[in-house]
Amino acid sequence: MTPITEVEGRRIALSNLEKVLYPRSGFTKGEALHYYATVSGPLLAQLRNRPVSFLRFPDGPEGQRFFTKNLPPGTPEWVRTAEVPHTDGPTRQVLVQDLATLMWAANLVPEFHTPQWRADAPGTADRLVVDLDPGAPATVVECCEVALWLRDRMERDGLEAFAKTSGSKGLHLLVPLEPVASKRVTAYTRVLAVEAGRALPGLATHLMKRSLRPGKVFVDFSQNAAAKTTATPYTLRAAAEPTVSAPLTWDEVAGCRDPAELVVTAAQLPARLDALGDLLAPLLDPGRARPLP
User: Fold this and answer.
1) Bond prior to 3 in cis (omega within 30° of 0)
2) Does the predicted model carry a pTM greater than 0.85?
3) 120 by DSSP, 3-state: which?
4) N or C: which end of the chain has fewer CB within 10 A?
5) Could you count the other beta carbons within 10 Å of the beta carbon of residue 156?
6) What is the 3-class SS of 240-258, one letter each residue?
7) How far is the C-alpha of 44 from the C-alpha of 257, rounded, in Å?
8) Confidence band (pLDDT; 50, 70, 90) for 64?
């Protein structure tokens, strides 16, 4: 029998809580739900007012995965949604605005992905993202070197960058912006990616062709496009272990010498929050936003 729980006055069916999602560690669906409840404060702050796309993996990372932006079947009527423009016509997407919605969504076993704009201003970005993706044999160690160069380069333009793990192989850099068209952010970030490739020719590239990327860090600027999304801070990832897209200090980035140093799991994240606080809270502070050059 599927257990029913009440969250903030909403009745939610939570299914298959003992199901093992991550076989290597024995991490269960119930533990995933507990993780999301534990980090709900900073996670909800990052999700709020951003249409959510779901990468679902209900049978674990080694099972079927499917990415959806549309409302999942059986979405409760009390879940808030937003109309989102797409090339083939507007659709409705979920807004995860409260703990009840978060727990309902977490029961679907998703990664949470969000755009760089809010639902009330589609295509107008309030943050910039750079995805640093290492091509083997490069690792997150090389990503850190590129991240430090990009941080310093953006600082010269008056922008303040914050780092987080992708939860997979690389790093994400996030920058709070005064609202600006996504197209302008994409153009600016592409210039940065090209500059990084010139400044670090053996280490970084802006070219997407995979045959040109072995041993280099791909500086992916494309996720600033209005139609693109990025793994939301604090989301679980569909990886071999229950890794998290976790905020980092710049000291951690500068000091990284081994990829294992920047692997953060669901079990570790709550202690990091207790010790470091929400390192990405400045992204939500309008006073930290700066104009795009």
Assistant:
1) no
2) yes
3) coil
4) N
5) 8
6) CCCEECCEECHHHHHHCCC
7) 32
8) confident
